[in-house]
Amino acid sequence: MTGFSKIPPPPTLPVVIQKEKEAYQFWLALHRNFPKIERFSIGQKIEQSYLAVLELTFTAAYLPPDQKIILLGKTISQLDILKFFAQLAWESKLIPTDKFTELSTRLEEIGRMLGGWRKGLQSKTLPQNSGRGNQ
Q1: Are 70 and 63 in contact (CB under 8 A)?
Q2: CATH superfamily label, 14-124
């Protein structure tokens, strides 16, 4: 990735990144209470998914709109994987119901923000496709 380090950071990062960071901090507190075996299995999988979502979103902030749309799609898919494994952890009684509800609410908000960001970019960069069928 030559030249990547020469790109200055955006003046302000998207609000969704702050929401992701807050949700990650919330997750860290939950993860610390997992039993050791689960902490290093499903807990690690959730951890990796969180970090991937953060990394993908942060990277998307630096890309041109057409590339940003693609990366946001990958970010949304990774978020869906994260939600799946968080639900699995809750179903396995590793996350208390009240904490899972809070976590889910945060992840749903992040999903709506990412989806809105992507949809806004699509409407700006692909206006010629709106209202047209497959031709």
Answers
A1: no
A2: 23S rRNA-intervening sequence (1.20.1440.60)
